[in-house]
Amino acid sequence: MGSGKSWTGQRLAALLGLPFVDLDAEVETLTEMSIPTLFSRYGEAAFRDLEAQALRQFPAGRAVVLATGGGAPCFHGGMDWMNEQGCTVFLDPSPTILLARLNAGRAHRPLLGTTEELAIFIANKLAERRPTYEKAKIHLPIEDPNADVARLLYDRLQPTTEHH
Ligand SMILES: Nc1ncnc2c1ncn2[C@@H]1O[C@H](COP(=O)(O)OP(=O)(O)OP(=O)(O)O)[C@@H](O)[C@H]1O
Ligand SMILES: O=C(O)C1=C[C@@H](O)[C@@H](O)[C@H](O)C1
Ligand SMILES: [Mg+2]
């Protein structure tokens, strides 16, 4: 949540010359509803079902950069499924970076409450989800808020060339 999946994914796709897909946007397109509306009208469980269904539209044969929603790896076996299909990345910014970003974008994130609850919410959610996130094939801790994350990732994804 706010780790930079959509932001970085878009830039990484441009570097790789691949289409970019945002799973949250995909769910919104499929249902013709915004995520906050889906949550409030049908509840989180219904959203998780739709999200899992949308994720399965992208098996290994479809070369895309896919930014999931923050919870997608953690429900309906999302993480294991993605690991079977392709390369997975855990973007892991420091709590300071996360808090600054989430505070700025709270209107679009229905799971968040008041500002005072935010820091506790982040810590709890991350602790709960980290074991699943850490199953990703690439783990990228981010300490510098100005790091060019897409470029770092692009470099990590290139096959290493040995020079003799
Ligand atoms: N590498 C970055 N450099 C500068 N700003 C960034 C970077 N990554 C993310 N941001 C900022 O943080 C905000 C949140 O990032 P983003 O929407 O990509 O998170 P997300 O992981 O997709 O979150 P969610 O799980 O809610 O979909 C962006 O709108 C952008 O303003
Ligand atoms: O972390 C989460 O559970 C969520 C993150 C967003 O990307 C959306 O998928 C939705 O708001 C839920
Ligand atoms: Mg996103």
Would you write up a description of this structure?
The chain has one domain: Rossmann fold (3-Layer(aba) Sandwich). It has helices at 5-16, 23-31, 35-42, 44-55, 78-85, 95-104, 115-133, 149-157, and strands spanning 20-22, 65-67, 89-93, 138-142. The protein is mainly alpha-helical and 164 residues long. It has a two-stranded parallel ribbon with strand order 1-2. The chain starts with a helix and ends in a 7-residue tail after the last helix. α1 packs across α8 and α6 packs across α7 (115-133). Bound molecules: adenosine-5'-triphosphate (ATP), (3R,4S,5R)-3,4,5-trihydroxycyclohex-1-ENE-1-carboxylic acid and magnesium ion. (3R,4S,5R)-3,4,5-trihydroxycyclohex-1-ENE-1-carboxylic acid (SKM) binds at residues 1, 24, 35, 69-71, 109-111. ATP binds at residues 2-7, 109. Catalyzes the specific phosphorylation of the 3-hydroxyl group of shikimic acid using ATP as a cosubstrate. This is Shikimate kinase. One of its GO terms (molecular function) is shikimate kinase activity.
